[in-house]
Amino acid sequence: MIFADLGLAQRLEGVDAAGGAASATAEAQLRPLSGATSLTIAGGQAMFVGVGSPITQAFALGLHGPMSDMEMDALEDFFRSRGSGVFIEVCPLADVTLTEHLNRRGYRAIEFSNVLVRQLPARNADSPSSAVAVRRAGSTEAELWSRVVAEGFLGPDYPPEMLELFHGLFRTETGTAYLAWLDGKAVGGGGMMVHEGVVNLFGDGTIAAHRGRGVQAALIAARLEAAAALGCDLAMASTQCGSTSQRNYERQGFRVAYTRTKWQREWA
User: What's the rounded Cα separation, in Å, for the pair 91 and 247?
Assistant: First the structure.
């Protein structure tokens, strides 16, 4: 049985923190002029991968003790000096000092997400569709994977910068990309990152015309199998609250561990 306590939160949030830092490193290598970088602070990580990037945010703050005013000042300077507002994903088990800083400094809550978890290895609750073939994306398929996942998220009219975002995620050293195929066509994709025995399943996207055919279920099952083979004992994913993705993960044996809040501070 998994208990949603501080120890679990430290492991789960630590995966996102490590993955974000690895993504910033990959971006800096791909585009040296981007200024992409990360900062280890208050037990977590802050990442900058460009103004407006969804990776530009902080994870896992305050999970290993109180957060000081000096640390909060340094965090804000990290983002502000790069022309970005501050975005912090806050776990509800973080030390209360983090919430106190947010309240005093004028932050506002802008988003909620559910963090789901399950043990590995374990039998999948639902068997994925046999019509869907899932395999690891090859080193030459960065463009294909990025296009499929971008369209799965935003439709065919996705902005060009989304391709750059997914290119960076594809090249992340600790990440692995997967493609799902139907009738010989790539129709969905997703990624996974492994850190200290925990696999984080992320980036799930299915092209709209092919939804409802078990594509995400097949992607989840394939990555769980790969993670178990690597020796992972926990799997996690983050979804919008009450979304189709959340239901698909719950069908594969995941349960909600806690709800995370994203906080924002913009500069006048």
Answer: 21
Do 123 and 61 share a domain, yes or no?
A: no
For residue 7, CA distances in Å to 72, 91, 101 come to 23, 12, 23
For residue 238, what is the domain's CATH number? 3.40.630.30
Mean pLDDT of 117-130: 76
DSSP 34: G
- Tens-digit pLDDT profile for residues 235-248: 999 999 999 999 99
As a dihedral over the C-alpha atoms of residue 11, residue 16, residue 20, residue 23, rounded to 10 degrees, the angle is 100
Question: What is the model's pLDDT at position 268?
Answer: 79
- The stretch 97-121 carries a mean pLDDT of 97
Q: Are residues 136 and 230 in the same domain?
A: yes
- 45 and 148 inside one domain: no
DSSP codes joined into one string, 103-136: HHTT-EEEEEEEEEEEESS---SSPPPTT-EEEE
Q: Is residue 1 in some structural domain? A: no
Do 14 and 132 reside in the same domain of the chain?
A: no
Rg (alpha carbons) of the chain, rounded to whole number: 18
In a shared domain, residues 130 and 250: yes
Contact present, 76 and 249 (Cβ < 8 Å)? no
pLDDT at 125: 61
Q: State the pLDDT at residue 126.
A: 65
235 vs 62, 151, 161, CA distance in Å? 22, 25, 29
Could you tell me the residue range of the domain that residue 56 belongs to? 6-114+260-265
